[in-house]
Amino acid sequence: MTREEVFEKLNEVFQDVFDDEEIIVNDETTADDIEDWDSLEHINLIVAVENCFGIKFNMGEVTTMKNVGAMVDLILSRIS
Amino acid sequence: MKELEYPFDSDYILKKKKKLRRELLDTDRTFLMKKIAVLGGSTTSDIVKILDLFLLNYGIKAEFYESEYNQYYEDAMFDPPELLDFAPDLIFIHTTNRNIRFYPEMSDDENTVSEKLANVYHEFEDMWEHLSDQYHCPIIQNNMELPSYRLLGNQDCVNLHGRTNFILKLNDLFHQYAQEHESFYIHDILSLSAGYGLDAWSDPFYWHMYKYALCVPAIPTFAYNLSHIIKAIYGMNKKAFVLDLDNTLWGGIVGDDGMENLELGQETSIGQAYCEFQSYLKAHKDMGVLLNISSKNEEENAFSGLSHPDGILKKEDFIVIKANWEPKSINTATIAKELNILENSLVFVDDNPAEREIIKKQLPSVAVPEITSVDQYIRQIDKHGYFEVLKLSKDDLNRSNMYKANVERNATIQSFDNYEDYLKSLEMKAVIGPFEPVYLSRIAQLTNKSNQFNLTTRRYTQEEISQVLEDPTKLSFYGKLEDKFGDNGVVTVAIGRVDATICHMELWLMSCRVLKRDMELALLDEIVDTCIRHGIKEIRGYYYKTAKNAMVKDFYGNSLGFEKISDDGENSVWSFVIPKHYEKRNCVIDVN
Q: Taking CB atoms and an 8 Å cutoff, what residues of chain B touch A19?
């Protein structure tokens, strides 16, 4: 899967979880950019991303993810 | 909504919860409004959001109070003004083994362990007692799931220092309290977590990251199970099965293969599976669920199949048997009518997907579980929680016989020319009087379950019913009816509020199983009699329209002869000025 393909799938997950079809994420996107993205919704996002790509994050990874770009890097390293 | 019925896709629900909620609310159905307080010992955010969806799907629109993180004990014991103002209709205490404050230490002797157990337990009992005194509403409490690791290995459940041993003892105390207290219900996460898989359920990742005491993907399973208890409390359980015969209750087609060649009995593995399924259904009959048949068969063949020597279910176990070639949607609707229950109380079980489809299309309120192969039937039905038991009353155990007697009674009507002669032949005896303590739970149950013959559709908890009994401004009435075919138990309830010389009927309901028996006239006679003794001159009746009570729209006028004093097209008010010489209306039931 290319980085662009990961972004495309990930974007759908964001749209579903935050119930907003206008969300478009990029490398720099963080929780500050999306209104409903609080710590409680974060868990739902993580679970949905894990299901979408068939992977599992560990605690260290979840706590250090700075932005969507970091999340994509992590996904790429896991599925390749 | 199909997405919220078993077997549901938990990941989908979690991901799409906002969209699902919008869709559930986008309807013209009227919801039952309830206020639910969730007192949590761990994060409850998604539990509440997903529970909300399952309740909406049952037709319950809840407003929630959520305690601050891990403030369940403080909220329960110290009456915060927010909770007092909220005035919950129901309280759910979401605690788990993460909230157990003391566990046995290896150096503890037997006494110390017992003391710890008593301390842990009493904190809970104190909360339950205080909440019940303060809010007079049903309480649902999780029991404890097993520990996620076993320090003492297999001895953990045996040795008194083991956490498993400690938790099992604590659960015993919880369960005992539930046995002894009305309106207190255990949400059984001990069993639920085992079914889900304890290792996945208590994945510590979710605790350390978000302080969820169960893994987030298990939340829909958890909330679904919890919603079963809540809908049962509000009288939304199913009441009856409509069962197919060929390849549902036995393997093979009785009309083609002959009774002796059916797969049923201990000889083959498939035959054994059908036996087990029949036993499962028979056990439902014993707890008060009504069994009925809708089968495309000649009646004679259906009966022949039911006479199979290895069959567990016999012809006598069923109330209504429709074995004919009519469409099943017609038979199913007729069964509801003959039993005098609503179609939404039925569960339709048929191995044929085409038949299931017809019911789903024609009778959308009937529950239609997807079943695949006989070895899976039990679980595929059981997980739905259709008949979630809150308490088994004597009435429940006897219900099947009562309905059967009813169907027999209807059969005898035809042999009388005159309806009054028929009623007299039933040799009816009634007891009517103010609420009796032994019947409070049945009375509360009736106020929550009766929809059709219910003038105001006010719902009462058992605590509220006991308060009516103590309130000097209220007149309460219950009625039991018995006849030569059997005892119907408590079938009618009325509550009047006295204001000077007028008695306002806040509640008047009757179970549809005794329709057209003049029980309502017997009750009126008693109400009038009581009013005269209290110096009351007038009785006012109120009709509040709901989606289900059109049957009694003109009850006060047509059946009782009240005069209409107002009507806004939906709700109406009726008056009856008690005459000097009131003549009793009922002449077929022997009262008290």
A: 16, 18-19, 22
> A49 to chain B: which residues are within 8 Å by CB?
none
The minimal CB distance from B18 to the residues A13, A19, A48 is found for A19
Residues of B in contact with A13 (CB under 8 A): 15
> Whose structure tokens read 């037709």?
B59
Q: How confident is the model at residue B233 (pLDDT cuts 50, 70, 90)?
A: very high
The CATH number for A3-79, chosen from 1.10.10.10, 1.10.1200.10, 3.40.50.720, 1.10.630.10, is 1.10.1200.10
Q: How far is B413 from chain A (nearest CA, A)?
A: 60
In order of B307, B347, B403, B531, B586, the CA distances from B281 in angstroms are: 16, 12, 17, 48, 40
Is ipTM strictly over 0.95? no
Per-residue pLDDT of chain A (80 residues; tens, 9 = 90+): 899 999 999 999 999 999 999 999 999 998 888 888 888 888 899 999 999 999 999 988 888 888 999 999 999 998 87
- For residue B394, is it within any domain? no
The β-bridge partners of B474 are B497
The CA distance from A58 to the nearest CA of chain B, in Å, is 8
pLDDT grade for B414, boundaries at 50, 70 and 90:
low
Instruction: Kindly list the domain boundaries of chain A, sorted by start residue.
Output: 3-79
- Give how far A41 is from chain B: nearest CA, Å: 9
B248-259 pLDDT, tens digit per residue, is 999 999 988 999
Query: DSSP 3-state assignment of B220?
Result: helix
What is the predicted pLDDT for the residue at B331? 95
Is B184:B141 a contact under the CB 8 Å cutoff? yes
Q: Which residues of A touch B16 (CB under 8 A)?
A: 16, 19
**Cα end-to-end distance, chain A, whole Å:** 8
Among chain A residues, the shortest Cα distance to B50 is held by: A44
B370 SS3 class:
coil
Q: Are residues B168 and B251 in the same domain?
A: no
